[in-house]
Amino acid sequence: MNGSGTTAEQEVPAANPSGGLFPGCRWIGLLCPGLGHILAGRILDGSGFLSLLGVCVWALWGGAQGYAQFEPLGSPKFSAHPWIALGALILWPCLLWWRAIAFALRGGRDIRLQKKQEGVSQWTLIRRRFVRNRAGVLGGYLVLVLILLALITPMITPYNPLLIDVGGQLSAPGWRHLMGTDEFRRDIFSRVMYGARISLAIGFIAVSISATLGTAIGAISGYFGGLVDQALMWVTDLLLSLPRLVLLLAIIGFFRAAGAQSLFLIVVVLGLTGWMGVARIVRSQVLSLKEQAFIQAARGMGLPTRILLLRHLIPNCLAPVIVYGSLAIGSTILVEASLSFLGLGVPPPTPTWGNIVNDGREYLRSAWWITMFPGGMIVFAVMSFNLLGDGLRDAMDPKTRQTGGG
Amino acid sequence: MIGFQCCSPRIRGFLFSTLAGLVLVGCKGKDDADAFSNDEFPRDTLVIAYQSDADTLLSVVSQSASDSAIISNLNYPLTDSQFDCRLESLPALAKSWEWSEDGRVISMELRDDIQWSDGVQVTARDIAFTMELVEDPKVASPRISYIQQMVPGKRPLVIDDTHLEWHFTHAYDPVTQMSHISALAIAPEHILRTADRATLRGNVFNREPVVNGLWKLGDWSRGERIVLEPNDRWTGPADQAPKLRRIIFRILPEYATRLMALERGEVDLLEAVQIADADRLRRTHPDIVQHRRGWRFLDYIAWNPLDPEDYKAVNRGVTTGSKVDLAGIKRNRLFGDARVRVALAKAIDVDKLINDLLTSRDTGERYGRPAVGTITPALCDVHNDDIPRLPYDPAAAKRDLAQLGWEDHDGDGILDQDGQPFRFTLMTNSGNPRRAKASVIIQAGLKEIGVDCRIEQIESNTFFERLRKKDFEAALSGWSAGLFVDPKNIWHSGPEYEFNFVSYSNPEVDLLIEEGLREPDPEKAVEMWRRLQALIYQDQPYAFLYWMDEIVAVHKRFQDVDIDILSPINNLHKWWVPADEVKYKR
Amino acid sequence: MIVYVTRKLLLTIPLLWGVITLIFILVQLSPGDATDRFFTPETPPEVRAMVMEKWGLDQPVGVQYIRMLTNLLSGEFGYSIPQERPVFEIIGEKLPNTIQLSLVTLFFLMGTGVLLGLSQAVRQYSWWDNIVSVVSLFFYSMPTFWLALVLILLFAVKMEALPIAGMTDPVMHAMMTPTEQLWDRLVHMILPGAALGIAGAAGIARYTRASMLEVVQKDYVRTARAKGAAERVVITRHALRNALLPIITLFGLNLPFLFSGSVLVEYIFGWPGMGRVIVDAIFQQDTPLIIACFFVYTLLVVGGNLIADLLYLLVDPRIRLR
What we know:
The complex is a heterotrimer of chains A (406), B (586) and C (322).
Chain A: H1 28-31, H2 35-39, H3 43-64, H4 81-105, H5 111-114, H6 122-132, H7 134-151, H8 153-156, H9 188-224, H10 226-240, H11 244-256, H12 262-272, H13 276-290, H14 293-300, H15 305-313, H16 318-341, H17 353-360, H18 368-396
Chain B: H1 9-24, E1 45-50, H2 65-74, E2 79-84, E3 86-91, E4 94-99, E5 105-110, H3 124-135, H4 144-147, E6 157-160, E7 163-167, H5 174-182, H6 189-192, E8 215-221, E9 225-230, E10 246-251, H7 255-264, E11 269-270, H8 275-284, E12 288-292, E13 297-303, H9 308-316, H10 338-346, H11 350-357, E14 368-370, H12 394-403, E15 416-417, E16 420-421, E17 423-429, H13 433-448, E18 452-458, H14 460-468, E19 474-480, H15 488-491, H16 507-518, H17 522-539, E20 542-548, E21 551-555
Parallel strand pairs in B: 1-10, 1-11, 17-18, 17-19
Antiparallel strand pairs in B: 2-3, 4-5, 5-7, 6-7, 8-9, 9-10, 11-21, 12-21, 13-19, 13-20, 14-20, 15-16
Chain C: H1 2-29, H2 45-54, H3 61-73, E1 79-80, E2 85-86, H4 87-122, H5 127-140, H6 144-158, H7 178-216, H8 219-226, H9 231-269, H10 274-284, H11 287-315
Antiparallel strand pairs in C: 1-2
């Protein structure tokens, strides 16, 4: 947030070429990824690495405690989870050490500064601008931590999220139950962690659907123009003029009665109602790109439309789509929670954040922890995605600003 | 700091005037005539929190609980109901009544001193008109089935202004019959004679209803509140005149909001308080008194004795309307045998369910009790306490099943027979946390004896639809108890009873039901009902779980609060507040 | 300008038609209909047939569609099926409440958002700027219903400063003087308004800040500074005016967002508005009411955008409408 606006451009990068506290301190990073960064003065990166590492250590500790649940957890949906966790537990430390070694090898100098400014790709430029934006980087690390937490969930949760009778009824947070228990004596911490998986998955999948759809519609609309454009933009305006939550309510409310599979239904419907913003952005990008020389040239060469769209136009519109996507994941998580509130979310007992808050609503006065912890996680996740999205936006195109939508 | 200088004064003016205008919209100044200020009772206001608004004030078309709560206070009933172990009818609008010898006709005499709030007298013709509305298919009254028990042309037979006769096609249990006819509030003929019957629910009558009860409608802002005031044109017995200044039903859809409003004192009465909240309120709010309503709600597991697939297949070939011959349908391989159902009942720990779900953690008070049938324990003499409950005994359950050939042959922990595992799906409706938890406890109990029960939560409407279509193996569901005995809809094997989800068919039970409903002697009827419960319990068509109680919280300043199983707000005219505790002076 | 307004209004006709058709298709695709609630298993079939005929539900879908469109063209919105009341009457009762809440919230969020954003931009990177940034991001990321419950808990239950719910005091409102009544209404609006508007205000603050920072770099602002104008004058006269222009368009863009939020806020605060009407209508599959609600929503959103455009025109004389 701090680096937003055009002024970020004028800042001098805050890298520390001298190499930190003592010469060679960056090599400490080989022992413990992140420590090298911190000693070299890159506090933010260092803490990010350290917290990711911490989560991994936590998972190992949890595994050693025998938390790891390799049995299918009552519902077939959970059966594949331990393998994802194991994979993540092997992959992520490798990744951390690789980055730490790379950092050490760079010799404390920021090699990115040495490269000449011209001749670098659009993506390199974006990366450079992004890493200068502390808030954005922070958001990035938070998102990574969230994703890692969601991946290794079975290793750190001491209880099965669906299992009842694991503790006292409505007992307050404590060491045995980090976030307390609910009226079914389920462990809220385990539920919130598994909820992270489902809520994040809903966010990612729904936004992928809407980003793909929006890009396709926007590109087609912008490229072909004329009647196609008018028709598609008419649909876009139409959907934009309806309150999204009410539209979702209508669709899900009508189709729930038909007995449709709800998790699937909700993800698809969220995806199908979120593409309008992307479509508009991509359309305007395509409209301006269409006039540029290289597209005109490619056209002149008789390139087939399909190739022109897929190879030249769409790749050049991706930057704003990515920005929009990272902001939309946050709002999708919020909308999913609102649907749960109205009783139209993912059906119980599957935990999602929205679901847990909804379950705890009746106990707001007698057991605040049921609503407050998952609610806090929603805020935390949405904030992380918004920080990341803002950072990406400033990096990708300092001149475009959106309000972020709702 | 920088202000709002961007806008020209013109715009600012516009903004503010719009704002003010909007805020003023709906401010209706009301000259409240303090009609009853010098009365023997100090007047106070009772605020009741309700989950949903009423839809209509016309009893003929009313459907929701909110509707009947309001309507019952606006209208003087034909007979008053009182519940103390059994439902009793007391004289109200009907001064007296008499049953004929054959038990088919009631002749009734009405009071002549009850007037509509516009001064017109309430007569027998109003009652006949009300029944005429119920009968009219254009009205689509949910009570249309009552009519079919009455002789056409005499629904009822009006003799003069104060005398009428009800003629029934069959002799029937008098209590049931009386409560049916007095459940309906009377509609004023002189007002509604010309009303459009196709849109009665939305008739303007709702805005300014002409009533004949103890209360009148003071104000109804839809979705917000309904205000009742004492009916100043009340001409009936003076001792029944209300002692409160007004009653306000506040519509607050969200439970957490209702509860917080109660704690804050914005609301004086809240129904269906959660047990955990009741515990906390007891500690923090000594000025709130908790009442129990009585055993109203039952949870049970219905076992489908038929094979759902076969039932569907047979049903498909049959045109709608005509009924399938159930005898020809394949039995369910698990629940077709009563001995299996009995064994399963022994593996369900009802006491644990009650302990976990329906017991206060502070006081240990139990808000649930084990059930042995669909007749509520509130009907003390009818409810059969002598039925020996099947004990919770998993070992015995396992033995029983082994005798029937269900043993774990392949060593996977699940019983099997002829290579088929003992596995079934227990269906329950979503959005009911209590049942969700009960289903999980039951699942764990069955697992112990090697029965694999899978839980499926289904959206409520679909759930009931599937129950009705008998499209399930086992279902965890519930009933709200009737306060008169009428087991026909649930247990009679006749084809017209669609609530007999489990296709229960026992000729002895059928006969008992038919005879019991016609039995004029209450003592004999009680014996029959007790026998009926024992018979049904033997067959275990359901696994009967528990009866549940409901907590109603009321502020302690109200005196003579009489919360009964019929309704928490049945006797509001008796409530009063001592002078030094009056909260709302105006 | 009249031409512009007319053109915009004409363009809403295909939009409305699209919305109505979309909703109609959705309702038709879903199983069951609004008359289900009238029936019990014992309802005789002839009563069912009569009710279906009464509401025209026995007709083929095409006929129902055409009939609905012609009715709408003649301004006939029909009856709510479960309530048997004119749709117009139901919306008439609830719409003013929603508009009251939305408009007050809208002004609140615009005002607060703009002020906060400006105060941040004036002292970029100060501690104030940082704190407001973090706090507004925090609120921006909060689920509306959760915020609403927390607000009630804090301000109404713990601090006992504000009423818990409702539009007016249930008991005393009728006995108040007009000024007291106005005050009563305002007090009841604070919590729902805050729950509904805080997220939006945070968004506006972020937008204003960025917009302001961009404008400050423009040549005319530098010129003004170079001429030696006081900082205050520079900010208010030159920068602010131009920075606020794009924000006016947000006026209209925020409306659908507010209506979404009002569904939840009205439920929690027991506010009798459109949000609850439409949720009930959807659950009861009350086609005429659903269609009328969406019709009204669309009109409001289009109208809001139009007003925003016109305001834009008033404030910025450079813009010519086509």
